[in-house]
Amino acid sequence: MFRLETEVDKARRDLLRMRLRDANTAASPVLRALRGTPDERDVPLHVWAVNDTDGELAGGLVGHTWATWLHVTYLWVDERHRGRGLGTGLLARAEHIAATERAGRASRVETWDFQAPRFYEKQGYEVVCVVPDYPPGITEYTLVKRLA
Fold first, then answer.
1. CA pair distance 59, 56, nearest whole angstrom
2. Distance (Å, rounded) from C-alpha 122 to C-alpha 143?
3. Which tens digits make up the pLDDT trace of 23-66?
4. Which residue in 15, 38, 66, 101 is deepest, having the highest Cβ count within 10 Å?
5. Going edge to edge, which strands form the sheet with 57-66?
């Protein structure tokens, strides 16, 4: 018999993560090959657009690379600077760094319907997953792109 507990427990979370990682590496030759290499961990990748005149943040991209993939976590451009190619430049710079400095072969991003799915499609990304009503009334998209 087991009892189910619902409290937040960081030590158990870490133990669970370690056990899942061990099970995954035992089952996957690809993940097993990553163990003990620099590619085993996420490597942060940030690109910032800072206004030359006042030092204010005009936009930025926060992501990371892992296992030859760039994962774009956040991409934002201040409304005053939208439509001028700044978002395209931020994304292109992150893709370039991922491809040339980190052996990146692909990129992925999640975005909501009211955010930027069309923007990413214009940058060569393809929709691979659509999750309707997540959260209620909103559709989430996952897009991917092969990097040169």
1. 9
2. 11
3. 999 999 999 998 888 778 899 999 999 999 999 999 999 999 99
4. 66
5. 43-50, 57-66, 69-77, 106-112, 140-146, 126-131
